[in-house]
Amino acid sequence: MKEELLSVGIDLGTSTTQLIFSKLIVENMASSYTVPRMVIADKQIKYKSEIYFTPLLGESQNRIDFEKIRDIVEAEYKKAGIRKEQIDTGAVIITGETARKENAREVVNALGDFAGDFVVATAGPDLESVISGKGAGADEYSKEHHTTVVNIDIGGGTSNLAVFQRGDTCDTGCLDIGGRLIKADADTHRITYIAPKLQEIIQMEHLPLAVGDTATEANVAPVIAIMVSALEASVGLKPQGKYYQLLVTHRGIEFKEPIPCISFSGGVAEAVYQSRKFEDKFCYGDIGILLGEAIARSELCRRMKVIESRERIRATVVGAGSHTTEISGSTITYTKDTFPVKNLPVLKISPREEQENLGESLRKKIEWFEVEDSLQPVAVALTGAENPTFAEVQTYAGELLLGMKALMERGLPVIVIVERDMAKVLGQSMYALLGYGKDVVCLDGVRLQEGDYIDIGRPIAQGSVLPVVVKTLVFHS
Amino acid sequence: MQDTDVRALVEQMVEDMLKGKSIQASSDSKSSYAASVGQNNRVEKMPESTDGGQILPDITQIDLRKQLLVKNPKDREGYLAMKAKTPARLGIGRAGARYKTATMLRVRADHAAAQDAVFSDVSEEFIKKNQFVFVKTKCKDKDEYLTRPDLGRRFADKEKEIIKAAYKDHPKVIIVVGDGLSSSAVEANAAEMIPAISQGLKAKGISTGPILFIKYARVGAMDDIGEITGAEVICMLVGERPGLVTAESMSAYIAYNPRHGLAEAKRTVISNIHKGGTTAVEAGAHASGIIMKMLEQKASGIDLK
Amino acid sequence: MILKTKLFGHVYAFSSLKEVLAKANEEKSGDKLAGIAAETAEERVAAKIVLSEITLEDLRNHPVVPYETDEVTRIIQDDVNESIYNEIKRMTVAELREWILDEAHTGEDIKRISRGLTSEMVAAVAKLMSNMDLIYGAKKIRITAHCNTTIGEAGTLSSRLQPNHPTDDPDGIMASLLEGLTYGAGDALLGLNPVDDSAESVTRILKRFEEIKRKYEIPTQTCVLAHVTTQMEAIKMGAPTDLIFQSIAGSELGNTAFGFNAATIEEARQMALGRGTATGPNVMYFETGQGSELSSEAHHGADQVTMEARCYGFAKHFQPFLVNTVVGFIGPEYLYDGRQVNRAGLEDHFMGKLTGISMGCDACYTNHMKADQNTIEDLSVLLTAAGCNYFMGIPHGDDVMLNYQTTGFQETASLREIFGLTAIRPFHEWLLRMGYVDERGHLTGRAGDASTLF
Questions:
Q1: Per residue in B189-219, pLDDT tens?
Q2: Span C406-429, mean pLDDT?
Q3: Is A29 close to C197, i.e. CB distance below 8 A?
Q4: Shortest alpha-carbon distance between residue A144 and chain C (Å)
Q5: CA–CA separation, C144 and C322 (whole Å)
Q6: Over 90: is that where the pLDDT of B27 sits?
Q7: Count of domains in chain A?
Q8: What CATH number matches the domain at B124-303, 3.40.50.11240, 3.40.50.1100, 3.30.190.30, 3.10.25.10?
Q9: Of the residues A83, C23, C65, C394, which has the maximum number of CB atoms within 10 A of its CB?
C-alpha cells in the first residue's frame, strides 16, 4: 500500500514570503503478515516559488496586505499547475516580525483556509524554530551522526534556534537578531530604519549611528559585534553579556549539555556559508551580508563543527511544507468521516491521573476548560497502557466516556488520542458502550502535551490512517 | 438516539462496569521481558535459601535495551539511544573474543523459556477457565506433532463429532485456538484477543459461538474444521515458533471458506501478537475488521483487497 | 548395476538407485517424513555397501529427477565436462571416496575432476563419508570467488553481517551493522533479510548500505535478500546492488515454488553484471538447506542430501560469489536434533566444495528443535577446520527478525583467533586501520564498541 500526499508550505516571514509544494510518500512499512504500519517514507519537494517581499500596508507597515498575498499564492498555484482541491495537507507559518503585525492571526487563518482544506495555520517563535531546523535538515543530521546540533535560522528580524539531539527536538529559543534590523538604501547606503532594540543599544553604547546616516562597514560593525556576541552566548559559548536578555525575544535555549554542531539557515545563512562573494555589502539594502560574514568569523564557526544545512533561505517554508504532517497509528477507530477538523485544543490527562482516577480527572479538566474557553470541540489525550487486558480497555472506555459526559451533552464529538497502540480496541469499546449511538474518533501513535493543538485531516490509504498536524510548544525530554 | 439517552446509557453501563474495578497500572508490563519467563511461577519453585533468606535477582527482569556492558564506550548516551532502536542484543561487551557471563546466561535463560513454550502443553486449567471446547489432532504426542506436520492438520472421527456438535448452529464465523509451537503464547494472548474480536464483530451483528481449543495443531487444521462445519470464515489463533526475544508471540490465521487444499496464500495472517509487538486486544480489534472485510468480499489472503 | 547385498546373512534388495541413495543416508527426520529412509540401521549400512559399488556412470545415467522433465537436471548434466567424465566414469563411489582422501591428490586435482561430476555423484560420495572424512576432504578444496573482494583465500575466514530488524527500521538495522563491523564481521557481505519484500524498501536499504560503505570506505559487498524479481526491480529503480540473492531448490518444481526458473536467475545475473555496482565477475548469492524440496513437495521421491547436492550443481552454473546452507532453519521434521544438523552441515559444506562453489554455512537452529548454542558452536568449529568460507554474524547469535539462533559476531572472531585466520585481506587492513584488530587479526580494546563509529 502506497499513497502520495500533496503538501503545501507557505512562509510569511519578516522580509520574504515563499511557497513550496512537496510530495509526502505514505507507505506501509510492515510486512503483509502483520498489522499495517503506515509511515511517511519519503518527502520530495516538487515546486519552489519565487521569493517575494512580504507585502505590508500602511505608513507604519503595521498590517499585512492579505489581498496581495492571496494573489501571490494564487499565481504560484497556477504556475505550478496545482489546484487547491489537490492539496492534501500543509501548513502556513507566519514568522519573525510579520507574526507581530496587527492582522497576523486573521491573515494566517484566512490563508490556511484559502490554500487548501487541510492546510494548517501555525505561528509562534518556538514552532518556527522547530520547523526551520527541520527544513534545514539539522534533526536528520543529529540522528544520522548520533550527535547534537543547533540550527540557527537567521532571517530579517529574528534568529530562531532549535536544538536537536539524535533526531529529537530538545529546546528552542529566539533572539531579535536579523539582517533587516538595520535597513539602508541599496544605492546610497543611507540608513532608513533601525529596529527599536538596536536603537536602545546604540544609545547605551553611544554609537554614532542613526537613521539618515550613511551606513559603512565600520559604523555598523559595533552593533553587529553585539549581535554576534549574543548568538555566541545563546549556544553557551560565552557568558550572557549585558545585551543578551534585551535581545532575547521570549526565551533563549536552556539546553545544558554541550552542543558540538551548528548549522545555519534563513537568508543570512547564505552569507555565513559564503557561497559567494559580495562586492557591495549593502546590495540587499540591509546588514544581512555583514552579519553573516561576522558570524562566519565568530566563535560559532571556530569552536563548533559547522555542518551544511540542506536548505538556507527556504528552510522554514520547506519545513512547513514537508515536516509538519504526521500519520496516525494504523489501527484506529472513527465511526464516521467528519474530517478535516482543525485546531482542536488538547486536554492531556497525565499518566498518573490516568491510572488513579481517569474519569474524574477528565471531568474536572473539561469543567475547567469550559470556564476558561466556553466549550468547544477538544481532543482528549492520554498515554494509554502498554499491554492492556481486555477488561482494562473496558475500564478505560467507561472512564473516558464518564469524563466526557459534559462534551456529549452539548453534542460535541468524542475525540480521544492515545499515545500507545490501543486506539482500535479502545474506540470499538467506547462505541459499544455508547450502544453504537454516537460517533467516536480514537487515534493512537501521536504524542501530545497539554497546550498543544492538533489538526486531523481526511483519511488516507484506503481509510486506514489519518494525517495529523501537531502544533506543540513542549519538547520531548 | 438522543444525547440524553446516550448519557443515561453510558452512566448505567459505566457504573456497572466500574463496580469493583479500576484501571490496572501499566507498570506490570513495563519491563518487556518480565512476564515472558517470570510469570511461570519460577520464583515459587526455587528452593528456600539457606543463607538468611537472600535470593539472587531474576536476570530476566533486566531490560536488555537499557543494559550496556561495553567497557568505556566512546559515547555511552549515544550507544543507549542506538540500542533503543532495536531488540537485537547490542552493546554486550566481551570476554576475550567470547561473551560475558551475564549475556551468555541470559541467552540460555531465554532459550530455555522458548523450549519450554514449545515442549510444554497449554494447561487444562486455562482451557477450562476460558470454556474452550477441547479437541486434539491425529498426533499422539509432542514428538509426533513436531515431526509429522501432516497429522497435525487432521482430526480423527471421534474428534470430528465433538466439533460438529459444538457448531450445530452453523455460525458464519468460527474462532478456534491452536497450541501450535508455543503454549506460552496461547496462554498469554488468546483470552485477551478473543473478546476484542467478538466485540468488533458484535458491532456488526455477528456472533461466533463456542471457541474450540486444538491440541497439537498446525495451521492446516482449520481447513479440516471448515470441511466439518461449513463455516464461512475461520479465525485461528496459534502459538508461533518462539524466538529468544519472546516466547509468547501468537499469530491469527484467518481464511474465507477454508477447506482441504486451500492455498497458503489465501490465508490472511496477523503475526507478532505479543506484549512487545501488536498487543492482543488491538490485534483482536483489527482481526474483527478483517473478518468483516472477508465476509463482504468473500475472499481472503492475497484475494482480499 | 547391482542393487542387492547380503549383510549378516540377510538379503537386502533395493528397487532403484534412487532408493539406494535415500537409504544410504545418515538418519534424517526429513527422509522419514518422506517415507524413504532406511527402516533399520542394518538396512542403512546395506544401502551404503550397495552404493559403494555403484559406478559414476550409473549415477550419471540415473539422475533422481529425469533430464526431460527437469531443468535443474539438464543444467547439471549439460555442464559436465565430457572428457574428464570419460576419464572417471568407471570409478565406483568407494573409489571416488578414496581418490579424494588420497594424499597424492591435491585440491587442484579434485577441482579438476569435479568438472566431470554430477550432483548425484557428489551426494553419493558424501553418503560414504564419516564426519571427519567430510572435514578432511573439504579441507583440501579451496574455492575462491570475487565480487568486490576475494572470498575463500587460504588463511581467511569470513562473515556475513546480518543486521536484521523486526520492522526493517533503518536505525535499528544500522545499529547492528555498526556494532558488527567493530567485531570484524561483514567481510563476506553486509546482507539484510528484509521484512518488507518491496522494491522501494529494498532500494532504500541498499542505498543506506552503500552510504555506510562509502562513508567508512569499507571494502566489502552488500545485498538485501528479497526475492530475485524484487531485487531486479530495485536495480531498475537505481538501487546500488553488488550481489543478487535467491533461495534455490534442487528441482525445477522446487524453484517454481520459489517463484523463478533458471532464465530468471540468468537475467538477474546479467542485470547485476550490466547495471550492478560490483567489480565481479561473481555477483550471485544463493541459499539452500536440506529438506526445502520436501517442504514444497518437489523432492520427486529423492532424499534430502541428493536434492541438496543438486542445488549446488544448479548454483555452480551461475558462478556465485556465495552459497550457504541455512542448515538448521527448517525445523525438526527435516533435521531432528543437533546431531542431524551437524551432520547435514558437514555434508553440505563438503558437497558444495566438491561441486566447486564458494561455500559458507548458516550454522543455526530454531527453538522447536532439540539443539542449542553448543550445537552450532561445535558445528562452526568443525566447519572452520574443514575450511568453510564464511558464517553468519548476528548480535549474540539471536536473530530478532527471523526468530532463530545462528553464529554471533563473537563466533567468527573466536574462530579466527583459535585457527589463526583473518578476514579477507582488504577488509582485515580496514579493521587494522580502524583499530579493531591487531596484525594477527585478534580483537583490540576498541572492538565491540559501536560508538567508535558514530
A1: 999 999 999 999 999 999 999 999 999 999 9
A2: 98
A3: no
A4: 8
A5: 10
A6: no
A7: 3
A8: 3.40.50.11240
A9: C394
Verify whether the Cβ–Cβ distance B146 to C372 is below 8 Å.
no
The answer to the question of residue A320 being in a domain is: no
**Residue C162, annotated as binding a ligand:** yes
A132 shares a domain with A79: no
Task: Answer yes or no: are the C-beta atoms of C340 and C365 closer than 8 Å.
Answer: no
Our CA-based measurement puts residue A126 at a distance from the nearest CA of chain B, in whole angstroms, of 25
A23 touches chain C (CB under 8 A): no
pLDDT tens track for A441-472? 999 999 998 889 999 999 998 899 999 999 87
Question: What b-and-e string marks burial along A243-275, b requiring 16 or more CB atoms within 10 Å of the CB?
Answer: bbebbbbeebbebeeebebbbbbbbbbbbbbee
C-alpha separations of C447 from C295, C329, C398, C441 in Å: 41, 29, 19, 11
CB neighbour class for A167 (10 Å; exposed up to 12, middle 13-18, buried from 19): middle
Residue A143 sits at the chain C interface (C-beta within 8 Å):
yes
CB C42 within 8 A of CB C10: yes
Half-sphere exposure of B280 (CA within 13 A, CB side): 27
- CA distance linking residue A279 with residue A290, whole number of Å: 11
Asked if B203 and B135 count as a contact pair (C-beta separation under 8 A), the reply is no
- C82 contact A CB<8A: no
Q: Name the band, by pLDDT with cuts 50, 70 and 90, for residue A15.
A: confident
Among A461-465, B30-34, C73-77, the range scoring the smallest mean pLDDT is B30-34
The per-residue pLDDT for B31 is 41
Residue where the block lists cell 573439504: C138
Contacts of A384 in chain B (CB under 8 A): 26
Structural domain for A225, as ranges: 128-314
Q: Do residues A109 and A173 share a domain?
A: no
Q: What is the CATH number of domain B48-119?
A: 1.10.30.40
- What is Dmax (Cα atoms) for chain C? 72
Q: Do B74 and C452 touch (CB under 8 A)?
A: yes
Nearest CA in chain B to C443: B97
Q: Report the pLDDT averaged over residues C173-194.
A: 97
Spell out the domains of chain C, with CATH numbers in brackets: 145-453 (3.20.20.70)
Find the closest chain B residue to A145 by CA distance.
Answer: B78
Interatomic CA distance for residues C281 and C269, integer angstroms? 10
Of C174, C176, C400, which has the smallest distance from its Cβ to B245's Cβ? C400
Instruction: Summarize pLDDT for B65-116 with one digit per residue, the tens.
Output: 999 999 999 999 999 999 999 999 999 999 999 999 999 999 999 999 999 9
Report which residue type is found at C426: P
- Check B195 against A390: CB less than 8 A apart: yes
Q: Does the distance separating the beta carbons of C29 and B147 come in below 8 Å?
A: yes
Establish whether C194 is an annotated binding residue. yes
Chain B residues close to C372, C-beta within 8 Å: 108, 111
pLDDT at C306: 98
- CB proximity under 8 Å: A 94-133 to B: none
Quote the pTM value: 0.87
- Decide: B274 and B250 in contact? Cβ < 8 Å: yes
Across the interface, whether the CB atoms of C167 and A147 are under 8 A apart is answered no
pLDDT digits (tens, 9 = 90+) for C3-18: 999 999 999 999 999 9
Domain assignment of residue A82, yes or no: yes
